[in-house]
Amino acid sequence: MIYSIIFGVGVALFGFVLQTSIAGINRKVVARVQKRYGPRWYQEFLDIFKLLSKRSVTHGWIFDFGIIMALGGIIGTAMFMPITQDLIAFANYDNFFIFVYLIAVGSLGMAMSASGSGNPLASIGVMRALTTMLAYEVPFMIVVLTIIKITGTSSVTGIVQFQQLAGNNWFIIALPLGGIVGVMALMGMVGKKPFETYVAPAEIASGPMVEYGGKQLGMLFIMHEITVFIEVSLFVHLFLGGADNILIFIVKYFAVYTTINIISSVYARFKIDQVVMFFYKWPLIMAVTQAFVAIYLGWVI
Amino acid sequence: MLSTKFSKMTKEEIDRKWWEIGDFFRRNSLWMLMYCTGCCAIELPPAMTSAYDMERLGMGPMATPRQADVLLVTGYLSLKTLRRLIYTYEQMSEPKYVVGFGSCTINGGVYHDSHAVINQLNQYIPVDVYVAGCMPNTEAVMNGFVDLMDLIKSKKANGWKDYHERYDWYLANQKAALGEVRVHDEFHE
Question: Cβ–Cβ contacts within 10 Å for residue B161, how many?
Fold first, then answer.
């Protein structure tokens, strides 16, 4: 048990280091898209440690407690994440719904803390984040439930094993419409450009983060990196057939994150009603079509 | 061996070491708050985009004063904007730095005899680096940022400490210009 907990914290730390490095490399990639040179690849680490080294003010205990709750909740979620089939802290506890439930603790902590700051822009940002969540969850859950129906298990490693036993028949290829919906929902989850509405630096002054500075913002950045790690690795496991060893996992992870980053670097921001209308139109139609085709007609490539 | 070396250090020395490590991170990741009051702000878009690309120095624009490290005062300050500038400066989290752009922040520039603007910015808030020129060209702006990094490295960017130590002097100047610094208006209730 003690071993599992230490191992789980190690997984969260691995996720933080991996995602922070890849986010730094991706800042260079985006800079090259915009014909710039770009920052050093470890710039994200410098930013986070700089924030932790600064002094900061507090806006009451709920402001501080919410941050700690968000960071703790996200680290707790990342502890259950399998990296490969064997590299998993709590075997048999990697159910998909565990991630769906636990990841809400982080979001709720951040929402609580942002409301505790008393800034109206923070409340607008939190409201927009929850609305965006409501928009992308519906098509995403339909696709994931289709996958669960096909594989007959909701365990993430079970789904990975199913794909590998079928001869690396990844679900992004086997369910092509569902794969497209998955990519779009992932961009909504990670908060990339067309769906970046709840951050919107020029419009609502970075939304929920508006009152944070110094140490609290640094902890929020760490929380954000681990959240992105959880979301992107879920995509890798559910749609890209997981990984046999850690190197393949890193390659797939890098490919997924770089792809959505390049897509997002050429887009402008949607308004919040456009986000909801977008997700409830094409991705929902595609997801329902995919579920009908895959479950009732049995057409899985 | 290592532990005996550390145990011999006094608390001040350990604090200084930590501060030096913090300074390394702070000078390599300067986040700006652009207070675009005047015409010098037009020099910032080429400095940020592909022409000069300040992101390679680790700098970037930030949305709110709480998140920012450097306050850029780009140009003349009327008395109304000075009050907001003081609010903004006091909201930033320490350590914080100020860069003044153009002649207007140094001695008033072409507006030196106007009744509505202040002439010397460092009478009201401490300024670490001035970038001279009317307006300064983009190379000078980039050079000013590199100068700020060097000042942080050599521990000379101490404006925020000076603001604590000589707050009475700054407050007296602010009151002489504005009358009352904190006014109750509909935005600050």
Answer: 12
